[in-house]
Design goal:
α6 packs antiparallel against α7. The chain is mainly alpha-helical. The chain is globular and about 80 Å long. About 30% of the residues are buried. About 55% of the residues lie in helices and about 10% in strands. The chain has helices spanning about 5-10, 15-20, 30-45, 80-110, 115-125, 130-165, 165-175, 185-200, 205-210, 265-270, 305-310, 315-345, and strands spanning about 55-60, 70-75, 215-220, 225-230, 235-240, 255, 260, 300. It is an enzyme of class 2 (transferase).
């Protein structure tokens, strides 16, 4: 079965409606493929001597009003195809990223919050969020990301094939620069960690669920790597080594550019004290890796990833905890001593 049929079947499946994923945006693979098919016929006509000024009309089904509209596409510049194609994908990628971030944040709150916060969240959800429902929703969200990531990759590859160009490949780089590359989102890493945490602590629940992917955390060349194996046997790998201290990330934070660091290293790079927090860094401070500024204000604490690393590397995690507490205590002491000297004039 071709991917287009598989993707359509997935979108119409019961699992999508069960978790309201049918209300989330998705890559319009079938519609975009039709656009490329029309453009391909024009490319063939142009290559066989058709005038570059010849115009042909493309009939596109309007998703909102179910009407048909006509547009003109010229093969030489492909202005219509480029304008509609890439802007549409950019919007869809943005919507998918926003959906994933909000849904994963909610899952993490339900899983990691304790005491009264967790009780109130469960009460608000009318007690529907039992453990099996949580892990099933996590599984569905991972599959949602995977299917849309594959659709995005295939449609951009098909664009390059039709136009004999590298514009599709370059557009993927643009998505990464805009932090809209679905498969590289820190929220996907957090989601995979969430699923693996449940797999290790609730083996019977996860055994009953059948998934189209697999997850693994292993050490490769002395570096921890989180792997997500996709249905087509492609593998997404996420290196969990902090680029500052060159150790496994500890109490990890993801900056808005997508790079992940230890809390202590992120605070150091942002020129803030640990008790002040990563988000208190100045907007002028830059990421140590990509040098993009303004990335500290919306930093995300990777709670599930930290829990996963604590489970897998407990001895190292406890050693780092002692080190961080010592550094935090040292910074706090020096700060208040300096404040005391300032106000007393000593």
């Amino acid at each position: 079965m071709k991917f287009g049929a598989i993707f359509t079947e997935y979108l119409l499946g019961e699992k999508m409606s069960s978790f309201d994923l049918n209300k989330c945006s998705h890559v319009e693979y079938k519609r975009l493929k039709k656009v490329l098919k029309v453009c391909r016929h024009h490319c063939h006509d142009a290559n066989n001597g058709a005038s570059c000024g010849d115009e042909f009309r493309v009939i596109e089904e309007d998703r909102d009003q179910n009407n048909t509209v006509s547009d003109i596409c010229r093969y030489r510049s492909c202005q219509w195809c480029d304008g509609m194609f890439f802007s549409e994908i950019m919007k869809e990628a943005s919507d998918i990223t926003g959906c994933i971030s909000s849904r994963v944040r909610h899952l993490v709150q339900l899983h990691c919050n304790t005491g009264m916060q967790r009780y109130l969240l469960h009460l608000f959800q009318c007690f529907k969020n039992d453990q099996q429902a949580l892990v099933l929703e996590g599984q569905m969200l991972i599959e949602y990301v995977i299917m849309n990531a594959i659709a995005l990759r295939k449609i951009l590859k098909k664009y390059d094939k039709v136009h004999n160009s590298v514009s599709g490949m370059n557009f993927r780089s643009k998505l990464q620069a805009e932090h809209l590359e679905i498969s590289q989102s820190p929220w996907l890493i957090e989601l995979v960690a969430f699923y693996m945490n449940f797999s290790e602590s609730n083996e019977m629940i996860c055994y009953e669920l059948c998934s189209s992917f697999s997850c693994d955390l292993s050490v490769t060349d002395s570096e921890p790597v989180l792997k997500l194996v996709l249905p087509d046997y492609a593998v997404l790998e996420y290196n969990l080594t902090c680029a500052v201290c060159l150790h496994t990330v500890f109490h990890p934070y993801a900056l808005s550019c997508g790079h992940i660091f230890c809390k202590m290293c992120a605070c150091s790079s942002g020129s803030v004290l640990m008790f002040e927090g990563v988000k208190s860094a100045s907007p002028k401070m830059k990421c140590p890796v990509c040098r993009e500024d303004g990335v500290f204000g919306n930093a995300v604490r990777m709670t599930e990833l930290d829990l996963l690393l604590k489970r897998r590397f407990r001895k190292e995690w406890e050693e780092r905890l002692v080190e961080e507490r010592d550094e935090d205590g040292k910074q706090t002491k020096e700060f208040w001593e300096s404040q005391t000297r300032y106000f007393t004039g000593i």
